Each structure stands twice: as C-alpha cells, then as structure tokens.
Amino acid sequence: MPIVYKTNILQLLKEHGYNTNRLRKEKILGEATIQKLRKNELVSWSNINTICELTGCNVGDILEHTSEEGI
After folding, report:
1. Engineered SS bond to 41: which of 20, 36, 55, 60, CB 3.0-4.6 Å?
2. What one-character-per-residue DSSP string does 6-35 give?
3. pLDDT at 61
4. Tens digit of pLDDT for each residue in 14-49?
5. Positive or negative CA dihedral for 39, 45, 47, 48?
C-alpha cells in the first residue's frame, strides 16, 4: 500500500484527550473506523479530516506516500 500512517493514530488521538471509549460514546468515529485504525488500515477522507481537526494536524503530518518497493 503506497500511502501509510506516519504514526499510531489511536495513540495520537489519546494524547489529545480522545480515547476509544470517548470516540465511540460521543460518536466521533464509528467502531468500524476504530478497528481499521487498530489494524493500520486506511480510513475515509472524512475520517482523516476529523482526525486532523481533533489533533490540530495536517494530512501530511499523519500520512505519507511510500514506494511499493520500500515497504
């Protein structure tokens, strides 16, 4: 997969006060999205936008493009 996360997204959210329980309870991110993040799978651009808003990051701070050979 040529686009990967630069960091553990759930840990980043936790550092900003959003643990998985809060994400679910306040309906910020759905269970399926949280499970994808646990597995390091990519989520929708809408969810990436939400993550950026919650953490104050830019897309480039959390995602990077890599070559298939470098993985």
Report:
1. 36
2. SS-HHHHHHHTT--HHHHHHTTSS-HHHHH
3. 96
4. 999 999 999 999 999 999 999 999 999 999 999 999
5. positive
